[in-house]
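Dear support,

I submitted the protein below through the web form. The confirmation email said the job was done, but the results page showed an empty box. After a refresh the structure appeared. I'm attaching both so you can tell me whether what I see now is the final result or a partial one.
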Amino acid sequence: MAAVADATAPVATTRGRVGRPVVVAAILVVWLLLFAVFRGRQTLTLAAADLTGLHRWLNDVNDSIGANRNSSPLFLYFFNEIRLVIDHLVTFVQSLISQPTGARPVPQIGWLGVVGLAGYVSWAVGNWRVALLAVAGFTFFGLQGLWQESMDTLALTLSAVFVALLVGIPLGVWAGLSDRFNRIMTPFLDFMQTMPTFVYLAPLTLIFLIGGASAVITTVIYAAPPAIRITAHAIRSVPQTTVEAADSLGTTRRQQLVKVLLPMSKRTVVMGVNQTIMAALAMVTIAALIDAPGLGKTVVQALQSLDVGTAFNAGLAIVVMAIVLDRVTTAAAARTERRRTADGRFTGWRRPLLGAGAVAALVLVYLSHTYVWAAEFPGDGMVGSHVASAADTATGWLQDHVSGLTNALRDALTNGLLNPFQTLLTDSPWWLVGAVLVGLGAVLGGRWAAVTAAVCVGLLVGTGLWSDSMTTLASTAVATVLVMLLGAVVGVWMGRSALADRLIRPTLDAAQVMPPFVYLVPFLALFGATRFTAIVAAVVYAAPVAVKIIADGVRNVPEATVEAATSAGCSTWQIITKVQLPMARGALTLATNQGLIYVLSMVVVGGLVGAGALGYDVVAGFSQGELYGKGLAAGLAIVLLGVMFDRITQAAARRTRA
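What the results page shows now:
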């Protein structure tokens, strides 16, 4: 009898335990019941033009900082000096390739020299194919009539990348060598990479004003974390046996770093440079909201005036620049690996060719510095006019012939899913929604996730933007659900089919290269300036990362397990739903985490095209001085939503893996 009791005890315990899905469902049911009772009470609604005490205080802080900017020691000897140094750097790079200087009506290096240098550098660090791509891409900027705007964007990007790498690589090396420093840096890097791009703008303009220098400082803060994190990972990935062998030979710490660790981690560090460049380009375009020159400003102005053609032309230039920079740095990383393993047969003829190429590039630079015909791009940018006209024509055709379908899709999703969920969030009492978020945090992520959610809820109430935060939360949640549905379908297909993976993955990689601004343009043409436009753009922006994570998770399910299910007579649907997806729960949770962060970033940017809520508050804060404090509070609210989402989903991912 004792043996029987022992055998049945685990079964009884398992049956008696309530699963997390049941608890989540119970929380949602209680929420709906209480919503029916308390609907419309204590919703903390704030009109668009209204300000709270916090907003007015932030306005006063802004005014006080402006009044004391040239007298406060902190600004005179620290912040202003930083801005001055960065401003000199930006001005210098712009004077080289984009802006006239002094009595010269053109930059120091004209279009022909820039194209020659771009081709030569691409060939030197990569190969002749990426050199041709770089030459074609840079020439295309001029044909679009966007040469100076493109060079302004490139100048800001190069300035930001230079400073980010100057700071990021040494910090990354330090984090790679020191466990203690790595533990200190990791929370800061996690926080910085969780924050949507919009959030960096408002507080930094409070300190550094607006303009190119502030844009570069903002971009450095946003782009440095990938350099730090990837460099640290590269140093830590060097085989321990190699380090021990160097130790046995009596090398010093510095010799190990210079002769062993850095050379063996060079390829990964170059990939970190790639990620830094992509992050910098994305941020530089968004920094147009703080008066950064370049293609981003053209896109912002076109979006605000609903000029799809101009926005599409400038967005296409941003995409081309992103592709060129990505291909060049990717080829550089691949070449670094090939050079490390090559036998040196081709080194002999490559060096003379590189020398000849350097001479040719210098000749082009001289010509562009000396002669106006080589400095100013010839032509009147007719290609850009044709591109804009074609985009406008396509937009008109779509609105005339496809508007019925697009409007039906927009209305179905908006009325069937978005509006009911938004009403549930915005019309519920704030304390009820807060309790639901804390409860979900506790169930999905555990005690500390619940504490984080409680703190974030309290601070969201304190910002005075609870209703706008709930509107943004509704759009983010709906977009994330769509991202996960799309990610599950395509990810499972890629995970189960090597052919599908080979065909689809390059498209996903290319999609991740494009800055967020670019996604708004085509959907603005399809759906007009509505919050639905921001949601669809967010889905397309966030889907690639979710798809790839799910595909890798499905592919990593042991083949023996799948074969056992097949031999047991399971159908394909049963294998997917009963074996592969359950065993890839960790990947699904991680995909949800990344999808949420990407979606939140894009939904906020959608404030430029009618998404409203927190995104609109931030944009209005830049354009209307009396709303600056409200815009700053909106930025804080976005951070709080991002932190809450990130902590809960990361904790849930850890619990799933455990």
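Response: this is the final, complete result; the empty box was a page-load delay. The CA atoms of residues 143 and 381 lie 5 Å apart.
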